[in-house]
Amino acid sequence: MTKIPGAREELDRAARWLRGQVRSVVVELTGDQDLEVALPEAPAITYWEEPLRFSYSVHVQHAMNGEPGVDPVQGARFLLVSAGWDVTVLRDVPEVPTNIEARTGEFRMSLLISQARDSLTVTGRTPVMALYEPRGLHLVSPECARCRRKLTALQVLRRRSLWGGQEPQPRRELWWECSGCGWLGYQHHEGERLHAMRRLKGREGNCFFCGEDQSNVAGEIWEQDGELRDWVVCLDCGTGNARRVGRAPDDGRSPG
Ligand SMILES: [Zn+2]
Ligand SMILES: [Zn+2]
User: Fold this and answer.
1) Domain of life of the organism in this record (predicted)?
2) How far is the CA of 151 from the centre of ligand 1 (A)?
3) CA 18 vs CA 52, 98, 134, 233: distances in Å
4) Is 79 in the same domain as 32?
5) Domain of 203?
6) Which of the chain's termini has less CB crowding within 10 Å, N or C?
7) How far is the CA of 137 from the centre of ligand 1 (A)?
């Protein structure tokens, strides 16, 4: 994989800053001046799609002394707001730990304060960053099975069911089309078998999920549990779903 210059250093700097922020919150709420907050040795993969994206997480669990008269929720809120975080207290109801969510830029911090105010859990996450060039940029185009032209990469993005304001994500498969004969399909990994997809016409070509017209393509039909199915993907919103297209042909045996 080809490294993106400077990306890892930037993510490491973000992680050290986040560690400082998490530490100051925990120190403020617990009074533990000697607290050391560890960082993972390396960032973890947060999104598996290309380009792979990485982030650091910081996690601290600590006892609080539950001093009467001191409200740790207000203390935490004040501290975070002063440091420039946007703070939301998600739950502040009896019997349930209070959950304080904070964000600044792409940084996230979540605090759980137990009902008895005797335990604190803080989780922080850095922005999510690509550290390597996406593999797709260096892909060798396969040949069209029909007309032998080099296929062109087709970007199919998932635009639905993304959480936290996430950008659209490329689907896992590698999608290709032929500028010569119009062939369209995908492969699971570089160099593997190409699977042809056909464009669906009429009503079934319209995406049920995003409403886009004539954006659905379907693969080969297979048989499962006495039914014929195929796999439909919307090229616009990237939603894929298996669909029932009819009963499997009777193999001649009568039931029972
Ligand atoms: Zn072709
Ligand atoms: Zn769609």
Assistant:
1) Bacteria
2) 7
3) 21, 21, 27, 39
4) yes
5) 139-247
6) C
7) 21
